[in-house]
Amino acid sequence: MEKSDLEEELIRTEEGREVFSSSINNEEGFIPAQELSKEETKDEFIDMDIPARKRKETIVIRRDQWRDIRINTELGFRDQRHGGFRGNKIKTSKYTILNFLPKNLFIQFTKSANVYFLIMVVLQCIPAVTITQGQPTILVPLGFVTLVSMVKDIIEDYKRYSSDTMENNRKVLVIPQGPQIEEATEREGEDLFKDIQWRSVSVGQICKIKCDEYFPADMILLNSDDPQGICYVETKNLDGETNMKHKVANKKVLQRIKQEKDLENFIADISCQPPNEFLYKFEGKINFSPNDSELSNTGRRSNKESAPLDANQMLLRGSSLRNTEYVYGVVVYTGHESKIMKNSPESRYKTSKMEQLTNKFIIYTFIFQIVICLFASIYSTIWTSVFREETEQYLKWSLDTGVIANNVFVNFLVTFASWLLIFCDFVPISLLVTLEIVKFIQAQFINWDHTIYDETKDMATKAQSSNLNEELGQVEYIFSDKTGTLTQNVMEFKKMVIGPVSYGKSESEIPSPEEGKKEEDKNEEDDFIEDLSEPQKTNPDITNVNFYDPKFYEDYRNPHCQNLSMIKRFLLHLALCHTVIIEKKESNGETKMIYNASSPDELALVNAARYFGYFFKERDSENNICLEMEDGSIEQYKLLNVIEFDSTRKRMSVIIRIPSGEIKVLCKGADSIIEQRLRDQINMPETTKYLENYASEGLRTLLLAEKTIDEEEYKEWNKKYEEACISTSNREENIAKIAEKIEWEFELVGATAIEDKLQDEVADTINILKEAGIKIWVLTGDKIETAINIGYSCKVLSNDMDQYIIDNTKTSDISDRLIEVQNEFEQSEARNHGLIVAGDSLLKITSSSDLCEPFKELADKMKVVIACRVSPKQKAEIVQLVKDQYPQKTTLSIGDGANDVNMITTADIGVGISGLEGQQAARASDYAIGQFKYLKTLLLVHGRECNRRNAYVVGYMFYKNMLFVLCIFWFGIVSAFSGMSIYEQWLYLFFNVVFTAFPIMWFAVFDYEYTKKELAEDPKYYIYIVKKSISLGKFLRWIFFAVWQSMIFCVLAFIPFEKQGGTLWMEGNFVYLGVVMIVNIKILTDTSNHTIISILLFLMSILLFLLGTVAINFFTFSDLYGVLENTLTSIEFYMILILFMLAIAQIDIGVNYVNREIRLRFIGFVQRVQSRFYRRKTVDEQNIRKTTKIHTGFAFSQDPGNAPQVVDKVTKKYPDAPHFSNAEPEEYYNLHNEAE
Hints:
Low-confidence stretches: 1-63, 75-83, 291-302, 399-404, 530-538, 1173-1188, 1213-1236
Number of helices: 41
Distance between the termini: 67 Å
Strand order of the largest sheet: 19-38-37-36-20-32-35-34-33
């Protein structure tokens, strides 16, 4: 390691020993560093952000990087070390009243077209070169285009401004300090705390947040209404999860803040990390002060008691308090320094690939214009110099006319500028106007499409950025959120296996309302419900259960059924083996119960037990589990031990003493884990078949098993378990080893199947998008196991797909894993491959170029990529990673929550779903839809056709303008390139506005190459248009057609009319009419589906030109005065016109035929490849079924460390056992079910 890269310093660790540490000195400042051994290299610094308790090495951070915060004093409102903290006011809008005009104009004139036409406006105002009598005629359309764009920007930015104002003006309860006292207002029922606006909240301030309120800043939890300082928060705006997570205050803080009045005199200071974007990481400590003493000059705090702080105490801005009456917290990060704002990118202006390519076409056209202008100017200057006397005599120049007549160079410049103005229509300003109008109308048709209207939400699809319409037809990557986008985040108990019998029917097996249920089935079910205990009668619609099977009711009610005892054991297992916590709350004089479960799957299982008459009512202070049985009786079961579930064990166990005194071990977990722990294989073969059937339906399964142990065996095991709980090293490993000794020799009880409900038609939509050549990336905050389960449910993953998981956390391990995956990929015989990567691994990959490049190469080879446990900022970084790697490919991000806003704004196209997580994603998106399934129509129908039509509009507008203007160039050959126009100046102005405007606009809005049904159901049409819509080659083909058609037509027009003594204006008017007819015939032959309106528009365009010519023929000021009569009486006029029009039409028809043949051959090739692929795939799948076990996604029984009220009570006799407040911050699901 280079000496210049390091700065050594002597600092004191928390243990009080002196060590030398090194910090990398980079442009961002100093970053945390480890104690380094001689063997360690610079690469090891990438792993420094791992929390200290996860590593054996000591984390040493430079003291001047941490911030010091004084609590509850005005002194705490400023950072003594860095000169002040930022305020809590946020601003996401781009403009202010003062900077809007200059800032927006600068953005407008970064577009090549606008700069080009601005130059033309200036030239039109110069008297010596103007061809419009000094009038800037281009200024009007240029101003219109600029004004439309500015208005759109104002509307979009005003929405952001309104959102900012609403956020900043929210009210929060605080203990006011300093200037806040004057602003503070009273709130009913509060004495110590007063209301102030969020914008006024400061660092170090103590706030009181009540249930269902949002946190105004990033805060440290001090206490709550719960005696143990526990609270529940909803973080859907941060990670997209609508389930609850628990937070817990530090014990030492709880000892000092027992009542609200203790806060008034609570003085302490906090040292913590500087603001950063890591949502799940926080490190700091709180130092308690006996009095309000100032910090010492050294920054050291001697003789002060302190307590560590971590992410378990962190309450983040953007999350809200749930199922907790109130909490107290102290602010540590405010405004744009809060984690949610650190994860929020600045809004940016999006342009489509077609618009970017059009800007390039404008540059190419301008270069072409410069070349022919130089040629014409040089030719004119030379000709004028050679034939000077004849020119002076013909043009009546005199020697004293000035420098223009005598100075060759000035004459060249004037001629050059004049030709620039003559050819200014090479770049059609009408293109910009037409596209703005067309895209707006296209967006309205998207909004009006009833096939993508969500009746359940009464929401139409909204196109909020019409300038990206054609981009929808070029998508090659889709980045999708999971929760709320692909899934409904609703778990439902659907099926079960008890003994050798499977119970529960699929949706397709349930009789429809029209058919009705069989009378005997209905009676069985009604009788069963009638026999339930009182709570079930009053709450028949228990949530999270969607079960139907008359056979189960029949077996359960039949006392002679051989399976009855197994059914009762199964239901008792569901009611006992869990860590669900019951919270009772008073509401309107009634006591309501709320189930707090550590996973949504576990909630569904407990509700299922309740549904079938095993009602979990209470877990008392003595760890007795109280169940209300189906007959209304109460039974108590003693909870002895809980062995928690984690992603390594894939199972959980509880040890229960039943009323008879026997001790039972109840275990549930993944089938692959439980099966190898069974005493025998009784009922296992049948169960395995049922599990595979459940998996094919996308259900998540668990196996349930139990065994009975004697008292002596339990006591011996429990003694070892106690020793493992109090071990000082490798505690978790020791507990796992002891658990293995008792989690064995089980008897199979049954299996459960839970449905993580997908959004409507998600699987079919993803399948057809994949067939359209689009790569799917799923970016989620869930665990790897959850993401894989959903991947199978929605057909992102399949059994014939090789999967590679990267979940390493160290740089060296990730590097080795990337090489290993690459080797596995090269040796694999599978055609489809999927990559699953964890968020911690991505963090290292994106921060290291050595890892980033091989990862991008590997990801590009994958059909599917799933990124798990990623933060909002990481989602955006992944999207940007692909954009940087493939800048020519179009990316689309879709999500439904505030945590998805980053990737929505980063992608080329952002699609927001209006859902349970609010409207943030929909507001920030370019297109807002009601459900994921509407993405198919949005892309394959609207996107495909907008792309095809808009690409045609761009090429056609260049073609018709160049055809129109090049005729003047060809006339220059016979006029010494003098710059003389052949068109009448008044008719000239209406070429783009009237004579050629309407057919192309009709085409751009209404033309469909195939029916909407064909486009939506057959993805091959989308593949073709993505590859073939617009390119430089197609643009040059348009230009080639314009050049040769204008040249041939001018030759046919000038030579015959010259021989017949035709005048300049007669020839020019004939050429004008020919051009109008050519360009309208072109659009006529290229339109795919004609209507009476399209034909009328074609005829009307030509008729309007003829009427204009007739009308202006009678005005003496016009150059065409009296010309029309001579033209109409010329036989050459009709012959040449008919001959040339027929020739042009035949050529266009021939070209279209060739293009259509090429397209059909391409589509036929795609169909043959797909057909061959599917035939081979079918054979392969059959082989896979013979040799490979079908994936059975398992449900999660609980999350480790997230049931403190249960686990702590069971382990309280072990004083040195790990407390839950020291556990890693994991997801906590507080899924509630309210009952009488």
